[in-house]
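User: Show me a protein chain along with its predicted structure.
Assistant: Here is one chain, sequence first, then structure tokens.
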Amino acid sequence: MKYSRLTKEQFEELHQEFSTFLATQTIDKAEWDTIKKEKPEVAEQELDVFSDLIWEGVLSKADYLEHFSKNHIFLFQCFDTYVQSIVLKSLVPETDFLTREGLQWLSDNMFTDTIEMKTGKKEFTEDRNTSLFALIQQGAFLSDGLLYKQINSIIES
């Protein structure tokens, strides 16, 4: 596998897409049930191939990622060959960006010396989607990019 297998919940959400995927391989419901029972290793392979196809599609469309931790917020804009980043760091140890209060504190203190803000650019050293998937495995999630755009427009002005 290139990525990771989708969770049970994700497979349930993508039930119709998985049925279509099987149909493209001329596997109907009855045959799928037989494969699961008599050839579980083949069923596992089908689940893995489908998972990789879904991940590939999602990652190919990814434009923004965000990762929040207690004292840091990492914002990423994804391009074809590189990723731009904005990193916000609280210099006040008791700040917790994982809480509503922590985010309110950030809003109130964005332009004070208690927030360290850095920007960066990193060229992908491997396949773009593999690089983005690595960020997701570290805790990043897909985003609409609103926070990135807001902060970036402030930085550029």
